[in-house]
TrEMBL record:
Membrane topology qualifier: Multi-pass membrane protein
Protein name per Swiss-Prot or TrEMBL: Magnesium transporter
Subcellular location: Endomembrane system
PANTHER family per record: ER MEMBRANE PROTEIN COMPLEX SUBUNIT 5
Any GO BP annotation: protein folding in endoplasmic reticulum
Keyword Amino-acid biosynthesis attached: no
Bilayer-spanning residue ranges: 46-66
The keyword Transmembrane is assigned to this record: yes
Keywords: Membrane, Signal, Transmembrane, Transmembrane helix
Range of residues in the leader sequence: 1-19
Broad class of where this protein is predominantly found: membrane
Species for this entry: Aspergillus nanangensis
Protein family per UniProt: Belongs to the membrane magnesium transporter (TC 1.A.67) family.
Length: 121
């Protein structure tokens, strides 16, 4: 993580903390004032905008500080998993599942059993 990305992330976190503190102060200030019939008040637009901008700045700082992505070679990965087998194979449950249940054949078999006919196998 580069120095610039850390500074950007820190600045965004400071803005986010300030927006949270401003929200807390606004809530405390208006919780004691019960002059109107409507007891709920909305946050001022500047606090909402500050929170959204700080989230964008923090996200940008984290993305800029991320390491370069490595290319994925599917064939190498799949070959390695196939050779090793076992618990690391993410498709193991699909490969070892039972076959689909033939509903129509089972209904016919049950109907034959009810009529007293012996099903042919």
């Amino acid at each position: 993580m580069g120095f610039l990305s850390r500074v950007i992330t820190l600045f965004g976190l400071i803005l986010l903390a300030h927006a949270g503190y401003s929200t807390h102060e606004h809530t405390v200030l208006y919780s004691n004032v019960r002059t109107s019939a409507a007891s709920t008040t909305t946050l001022p637009q500047d606090i909402v905008i500050e929170a959204l901008i700080s989230l964008v700045i923090v996200s940008a700082g984290l993305v800029l500080g991320a390491e370069k992505l490595k290319p994925i070679s599917w064939s190498e990965w799949a070959g390695e998993i196939e050779r090793e087998g076992g618990a690391r194979n993410p498709y193991r449950r699909l490969e070892e599942r039972y076959g689909f249940w033939d509903v129509r054949a089972k209904r016919k078999e049950f109907a034959d059993w009810v009529r007293g006919e012996i099903p042919k196998e």
